[in-house]
Amino acid sequence: NPSDVTPDGRLPSADNGSYEKDSGHLRDIFYRMGFNDQEIVALSGAHALGRCHADASGFVGPWTPTPTAFNNVYFSLLKNSAWEEGCIKGQTCKNKQYRDTATQQFMMLPTDIALIKDPGFKKYVDLYADDEKAFFKDFSGAFSKLLENGTKNLYAAA
């Protein structure tokens, strides 16, 4: 339900105009919570799960062909696929996003693309694309840290 979507300001903006600004925005959001570049990339691996819904976020489509499996396919696709700006096949996008050029079935947010354009992030995308165990280990640590950070001013969705 779109009314249950996280309010603006709780999550990083997915498009800030350029990969440099997207990278900077990710760092601004996550550094203030005590995360480093490796942990930012590891947490981004949660995009292996689920999909975007245009009515909720303005973005549309799955990141991977296995949206119900937690694995490193997100990183493999990010690293090994060619990406172009556009909506996945048969859909209309409200916001700027990217699709794989081979099948046009999978999407990436501008902040996902920043992970392969920014050298500080890319080395971890490469690592996790090639080593699922390293991804699981690093994600586990980063996710635990995220949970330990806690929350403030949350309220139940209507």
In short:
GO terms for molecular function: cytochrome-c peroxidase activity; heme binding; metal ion binding. With 158 residues, the chain is mainly alpha-helical.
Provide structural commentary.
With 158 residues, the protein is mainly α. It has one domain: Peroxidase, domain 2 (Orthogonal Bundle). Helices cover 45% and strands 8% of the residues. The chain is built from seven helices and five strands, in the order ααβαβαβββααα. The chain has helices at residues 19-31, 37-44, 54-57, 73-80, 110-117, 119-130, 132-149, and strands at residues 51-52, 61-62, 83-85, 98-100, 107-108. The strands form two sheets. Strands 3-4-5 form a three-stranded antiparallel sheet. Strands 1-2 form a two-stranded antiparallel ribbon. Helix 1 crosses helix 5 (110-117) and helix 5 crosses helix 6.
CATH superfamily: Peroxidase, domain 2
The CATH class is: Mainly Alpha
Residue windows where pLDDT falls under 50 for at least 5 positions: 1-6
Estimate the helix proportion, in percent.
40-55%
Please name the CATH architecture.
Orthogonal Bundle
Global Rg: 15 Å
How would a textbook summarize the main sheet? 3 strands, antiparallel
Mean pLDDT: 87
> How many DSSP helices?
7
What is the terminal separation in angstroms? 10 Å
| Global structural class | mainly alpha
Oligomer: single chain
What is the approximate shape? globular
The name of the CATH topology is Peroxidase, domain 2
What share of residues are in beta strands? 5-15%
How many discrete structural domains? 1
